[in-house]
Amino acid sequence: DTVLTQSPALAVSPGERVSISCRASEGVNSYMHWYQQKPGQQPKLLIYKASNLASGVPARFSGSGSGTDFTLTIDPVEADDTATYFCQQSWNDPTFGGGTKLELK
Amino acid sequence: QVQLQQSGAELAKPGSSVKISCKASGYTFTSYAMHWIKQTTGQALEWTGYIAPGSGGTKYNEKFKGKATLTVDKSSSTAYMQLSSLTPVDTAVYYCARALHGWSFDYWGQGVMVTVSS
């Protein structure tokens, strides 16, 4: 399985820029996707294929990377962005990162 | 609008089976693969497998072979996942999700909580 590693938690202030990283145990080309999940809700697609903004997602969200290292950036962060963010690869059978919990100061 | 409506929570005894459903609406059901994803209380997400509704073809995560069985009813645009020989380890929320754009999941059901307890 392709293992995806994310840092467990981040804390930022509203208005700041935050970057959430995801490292794959092997190259996944650009087949990396990002989701936002709030408590009690299903995950929501933010970014597909590394850098493409999903429909209806604010332009404050962006994605970058290829191969094994990927980043989700939120700029500027808003209070409503408090959530857990997951990366997911689909170059091989799909696997997910462990999630990064974003908290606002 | 696209919607995936899943069935209600299940409480099952160890050794039994459950069959959960996912009714799709707002798009052509047979045009998109339907995937199933497990989320445990600790939030870890695991891909279970997928079914191509048009052909009925399936692919499973090796870990879930023999555990999960995916089927569809094209007449009602509904996908099903049966979980068998349940143990407490199967306790989780199970989501159906539509696949798009290189197997990103653009629409998800609301999830079904399956609790396995004696």
Descriptive tags:
heterodimer, A: 105 residues, 7-stranded mixed beta sheet, 4-stranded antiparallel beta sheet, 0% helix, globular, B: 118 residues, 11 strands
What's the helix and strand layout?
The complex is a heterodimer of chains A (105) and B (118).
Chain A: E1 4-5, E2 9-12, E3 18-24, E4 32-37, E5 44-48, E6 52-53, E7 61-66, E8 69-74, E9 83-89, E10 95-96, E11 100-104
Parallel strand pairs in A: 2-11
Antiparallel strand pairs in A: 1-3, 3-8, 4-5, 4-9, 5-6, 7-8, 9-10, 9-11
Chain B: E1 3-6, E2 10-12, E3 18-25, E4 34-39, E5 45-51, E6 58-60, E7 68-73, E8 78-83, E9 92-100, E10 104-108, E11 112-116
Parallel strand pairs in B: 2-11
Antiparallel strand pairs in B: 1-3, 3-8, 4-5, 4-9, 5-6, 7-8, 9-10, 9-11
Describe it:
The complex is a heterodimer of chains A (about 100) and B (about 120). Chain A has about 100 residues and is mostly beta strands. Chain A has no helices and 11 strands. Chain A is globular and about 35 Å long. In chain A, the strands form 2 sheets. In chain A, strands 2, 4, 5, 6, 9, 10 and 11 form a 7-stranded mixed β-sheet that branches. In chain A, strands 1-3-8-7 form a 4-stranded antiparallel β-sheet, with no helix packed on it. Chain A starts with a strand and ends with a strand. With about 120 residues, chain B is mainly beta. Chain B is about 0% helix and about 55% strand. In chain B, the strands form 2 sheets. In chain B, strands 2, 4, 5, 6, 9, 10 and 11 form a 7-stranded mixed β-sheet that branches. In chain B, strands 1-3-8-7 form a 4-stranded antiparallel β-sheet, with no helix packed on it. In chain B, a hairpin with a 3-residue loop joins strand 9 (about 90-100) and strand 10.
